[in-house]
Design a protein that fits this description.
By secondary structure, this protein is α/β, with parallel strands linked by helices. The chain has two domains: 118 residues, 3-Layer(aba) Sandwich (Rossmann fold); 118 residues, Rossmann fold (3-Layer(aba) Sandwich), CATH 3.40.50. The protein is 28% helix and 30% strand. The protein has nine helices and 18 strands. The strands form five sheets. The chain has a ten-stranded mixed beta sheet, sandwiched between helices. Strands 1-2 form a two-stranded antiparallel ribbon. Strand 13, helix 6 and strand 14 form a beta-alpha-beta unit. The chain starts with a strand and ends with a strand.
Amino acid sequence: MLPNRIKLLEFFGLNVLLPRTDKYHIRSQSFILLLPQRLDKKAMAINMLILTDYSEHSLNAAKYALNLSETTSNFYILNSGSTETELMDKFISELSREPEAAKHKFCSLFSTENLIEATRKTVTEKNIDLIVMGASGKSSSQIKGLGNNTYNVIRKVKCPVLTVTENQQFKPWENLLFPIDYGVLLHGNTLGIFKKLPLLALSVFNIWEINAAKDEHKLNSYRTEINSKLSPQPVNFSEIEVADQLGGQFWKNAKSSADLVVLMARNLKISDELLLHPLVAEKGKNTRPPVLILHG
């Protein structure tokens, strides 16, 4: 369920908690913030692809995904390498028992092709908006905190991918952490998924600028582009030194302050350093916020 209140944190010095109504007009000196109308007026169906090996990790990721849309959306459940229906039926049966499942549609898909080819084909044929998968699966072979299959899908399939760690519980995406290097430009509809996920209308984007441009004019130009692509969501910008913030320190900060981390797949230096870093340990469990990887 989406929250009934919208929290705006340190946005141009404004710190308020607002009840949800039809529309807000917030005025504070030099800016006017217009938040969108009630989400159900603009909600649209989303085509999600759930990649499953029938593990608990993949089931948990699928349950998490049920919360991403307020309206009826299409969930395509794909298993590659097998055509066994019994495990698929059990998987969808368990998923359907979740309270948020009632409004969604489910379709099982099988393929004898390898995972990458099967996923690419499904993304094209079903017009997939978002792939959702567990950060790791049955395989004990992992690339540090990320499973091999998950990493390969992120790198080789040109579609937004949401990775969910083991036992991750859904929390509304109020605060998003988005490290970005302006050396890798945002092309076309890279941020288009944000317009299709209605819960993001309640989010504050915290942009960590890695290697920010020294030219103030150029930096302002980049920031204007980001603001225009993410409008009307509020955006905060912070210049970050790579040596001080990436790796373990990044995840410690992210875990305490972010509901979602957004990464650009094309920005190999940043995304690989963060994705391949070991998970943050807490009370015997490894965890970190879900990660959304964008292509473009």
